[in-house]
Amino acid sequence: SFLPDYISGDFDSIQPEVKEYYKVKGCELIETMDQDFTDFTKCLQILQKKIEKKGLQIDVIVALGGLGGRFDQTMASVETLFHATNITPFPVIVIQECSLIYLLQPGKHKLCVDTGLEGDWCGLIPIGNSCESVTTTGLKWNLTNQVLKFGTLISTSNTYDDSRIVTIETDKPLLWTMAIK
Question: Which of 40, 64, 102, 139 has the fewest CB atoms within 10 Å distance of its CB?
């Protein structure tokens, strides 16, 4: 069975028997009381320090969970992706059951969607600000210098064309979301 190397948070909602279970199993419990950041954000800060201290070679950070349950906590996970750009140089992807999210930074991006793990839908959501210019290829409904903004247009329930590669160019951070199998 899988055991985490460490568990971090303020432990305000953990059941005592759960906390004890992981402690007995040898997991490091790191209490972080700062209420200005989510447990996820604080966990990324600790992880980045551990990566640096141990000299680990990684390509991406994958967080499992954080998109189900309460909507406010889902949005907090999205907000953590914004903090992540100041915490770690590595991409941070969040996966929950059949959904994946990743915050694209301004610039050009190339996504290979030919692994066989992609589901049927994808979307581009402007979170935190409007995107004044978004251009895509590889989608059924592509965008050309399109403004994405709540109250105007967001791209949801899109899908892929047959090219197996999606390109996205954005002028502002833009949330990529997709179905996974």
Answer: 64
